[in-house]
Amino acid sequence: MTANYTGSSKLNRRQLLAGGAVAAGGMVLPRVGTADSSGDLLQGGAEHVISIWLGGGMGQIDTFDPKAKGDPKNNVAGAYYDAIETAVPEVEVCEHLQQLAPLMDRVTAVRTVHHEVINEHAAATNRMHTGRPISGTVTYPSLGSLISHECGAAADGAPPYVLIGYPNITRGPGFLGARHGYLYLTDTSQGPAGLSRPDGVTPERQSRRENFLSVLQRSAEPTDDTRLLDYDAAIAQSLKLSGPEFNRVFRLDRESDELRTRYGGEFGQRCLLSRRLIERGVRFVEVSHNLNFLNGAGWDVHNEGILQQHKLIQELDTAVSALIVDLEEKRLLDKTLIVITTEFGRPPEFDSGGGRGHQGTAFCCVLAGGGLTHRGAWGQTDELSKSVVADPVGVPDLFATICAAVGVDYRKNLYDGDRPVPITDRGQPISALFA
């Protein structure tokens, strides 16, 4: 069966016993390979993040952490598909990731991400976007807003944060304020609707409106109310972005037919647009895989939803492999960190309909490019990818790794009023990726 190589030592008795402790509910494993908070600050040289969100819960055992095959008809736990070799010795992926397999030397599948949320999609989605549990007193910012707040846009005339998908509070700026929110669109065939002038509003009429707005703003009393200041900043950014210069980035028809075909369908076109956005100066792009799910159920493969799961995996394989190669050809891969996340994983056991439930004890998130020292996979799980055996990576650690890759200080505090809030909930990066 596939070896679960991660750059760490092979499994030994002590690790297996520790894995049993994790399965019992106590995450007691040492963070081998994560940074010591008293050591040097880790900082990479990436300039952009493309975050791909797989809503529903991508099954790690059926994608990036394959194990021995199971049998849903006879209720034998295990993988749904065969495994194939990759460009990295002893690292395997599922058979439907054929295009990514030869590119895994540019990729690290982090196989030991974990949290305790398993039965609530909304709460797990919030956890994977903000890096921490929901609080009744604080609305935490999303990762995209954190990067926007710390880095700003990479070029003048570009928004720092774009969401290609449906808007949601979990993607929002939280206590950082509206100026660190996202610009969003759901249709890659046109730019954001909010930046398009209504029919009948000529350039002259628009100019008169902007002049009138300027008069009102100059006549208003000075204020230090952050809500009003954020509102003014949002208006100013919207006016800057509504012109033809920025909106040209959404003209995918300017790309060659061959390249567009290589990326695949609608999800692939979203990934292609993400490359155009970071070229234009957008700092953080989230691409949601939530349109026209080919299996009819998305990644939440309970019961019969698993029957066509391979189509989703193949669609992911096509789009992400094209994105990696495209960025590499344009010499942007080392400057762009690709992140694939999902709310939780799937257990190795099959439900009564042959599908899978939810699992938070161990699941995969994927990093690619970004100038990191990639190794194909990081972290070890047990023989069924159910429990962490070595190198656990908490959600704050994953966030700290992403922040470090783009040069953000993952140790600093942000402030909700006078209240200090650790930017990554005290996460520590996977230091081996910065070697």
CATH superfamily of the largest domain: Alkaline Phosphatase, subunit A
- Helix share of residues? 25-40%
Task: Assign the CATH topology of the largest domain.
Answer: Alkaline Phosphatase, subunit A
User: How many strand elements?
Assistant: 15
CATH architecture of the largest domain: 3-Layer(aba) Sandwich
Rounded to an integer, what's the Rg over CA atoms? 22 Å
The number of helical runs is 10
Please report the first level of CATH classification, the CATH class of the largest domain. Alpha Beta
Global outline = globular
Order of helices and strands: HEEEEHHEEHHHHHEHEEEEEEHEE
Give the biggest sheet.
9 strands, mixed
Description:
- The chain has 435 residues and is α/β, with parallel strands linked by helices.
- The protein folds into 2 domains: 45-75 and 93-195 and 250-352 and 361-375 and 394-409 and 422-428, Alkaline Phosphatase, subunit A, CATH 3.40.720.10; 197-241.
- It is 28% helix and 15% strand.
- The chain has 10 helices and 15 strands.
- Strands 1, 4, 5, 6, 7, 8, 9, 10 and 13 form a 9-stranded mixed sheet that branches. Strands 2-3 form a two-stranded antiparallel ribbon.
- α8 packs parallel to α9.
- The radius of gyration is 22 Å and the shape is globular.
- The model is unreliable at 1-28 (pLDDT under 50).
Brief sketch in words of this structure:
With 435 residues, the protein is an alpha/beta fold.
Structural features:
435 residues, disordered N terminus, Alkaline Phosphatase, subunit A, 10 helices, single chain, alpha/beta, 15 strands, 9-stranded mixed β-sheet, two-stranded antiparallel ribbon
